[in-house]
Amino acid sequence: MDVIKKPFGEMDGKAVESYTLKNDSGMEMTFITYGGAITKILTPDKDGVLENVVLGFDTLEQYVQHVHYYGALIGRVAGRIGQADYPSQGKKVELTPNDSGNHLHGGKIGFNRVIWSVEEVSVKKEEVSVRLSYFSRAGEEGYPGNVKVDVTYTLTNSNELLIEYGAEPDCDTPINMTSHSYFNLSGAYKEDILSHRLQLKADWILELSGEKVPTGKLIPSEGTAFDFHDGQTIYEGMQSGQKEGYDHAFILNKGEQGIALSHAESGRALTVETDQEAVVLYTGNHLTDDLLSGGVRGREHLGLCLETQGYPDAVNHPHFPSVMVKEGEVYKASATYSFHVLNEQG
After folding, report:
1. Distance of CA 14 to the CA centre of its chain
2. Strand partners, 204
3. How many CB atoms lie within 10 A of CB 100?
């Protein structure tokens, strides 16, 4: 087990560093302090070949310039907030609009656009971890209150990556964080994600407006292109009525909050376990031809996101589970990403 720190660049006179977490079986996970972005995850295929399974860049300049949130930490609130405002205590809170008049992924300078501080590095016999922190000041992107935020990345000898989120506000404010990694289990971006098989237990999805903002209505997934109960490939789902791809919030059935993704040819499989109520499946419908690590050009459907979180736009729908965190309360959320090969666990 090891943690390796390296310089990654400089922004506004501040150093940006990369941290690589390694376990004893060869798996590696690398992130940078800019946006807390995960840049690489190296996992073995069925033949033991280690390859990168997330989309990322080689330089800081690319992370600063790109618009697709590759690997980044998202906050204060993930997803879209309709009309970039919400009601609170009889008043309207106005946020920074950055997506057709709506507020997306924390605004123009969300948690993905700041430099995080490394607070603690821990190397133990069976796991290594790094804890990051960020102080989000009152008024940032329109949000009320100061918030102390921390995120811990932990890599275990069982090829598990655990992401733990925490936040403490000094007044009532919405918090709904996630990680925006794009997974591609083929390894080194050898093919797109249409052949990836996805299984998740979600009886309901959130209906979306034409601007991808939840309308407040839940619609059943059974028998539709959103029915992944028994597993289907992304291609099969798209062919059954969702041709443009997915960018939708699935409401995970209580007690069945596990998500399984696999790629038959490489033999790689990923299981995601979360304590959150929803996952947004985004199939990279609008990815552009950025030069990715390894010299591969980006394109649509080259990666997919599994963004574990609370309900998007919950601040505007009182019947949704609340994402408001009150003064004195502590926000906590977590997701565990377990990597294995199909001939190990099926």
Report:
1. 25
2. 220, 251
3. 12
Amino acid 245 reads G
Residue with tokens 């010299």: 295
Of 345, 336, 342, the closest CA to residue 127 belongs to: 336
Nearest to 321 by CA among 156, 159, 161, 204: 204
CA distance 80 to 58: 29
- Reported as a single tens digit per residue, the pLDDT across 21-45 is 999 999 999 999 999 999 999 999 9
HSE-CB of 4 using CA atoms within 13 angstroms: 9
- Give bridge partners of residue 14 from the DSSP assignment: 11
- Pick from 307, 297, 303, 293: which is nearest to 337 by CA? 307
Residue type, 202: A
Torsion angle of the four alpha carbons 211, 214, 218, 223, in this order, in degrees rounded to the nearest 10: 30
∠ CA 236-240-246, nearest 5°, is: 75
pLDDT in tens, 184-242: 999 999 999 999 999 999 999 999 999 999 999 999 999 999 999 999 999 999 999 99
Residue partners of 110: CB distance under 8 A and separation at least 6: 74, 75, 76, 141
pLDDT above 60 for 345: no
Q: Give this prediction's pTM.
A: 0.97
In the beta sheet, which residues pair with residue 10? Answer: 15
Q: What residues act catalytically? A: 180, 307
What number of other Cβ atoms are within 10 A of residue 255's Cβ? 7
Burial class (CB in 10 A: 0-12, 13-18, 19+), 271: middle
Reported as a single tens digit per residue, the pLDDT across 128-186 is 999 999 999 999 999 999 999 999 999 999 999 999 999 999 999 999 999 999 999 99
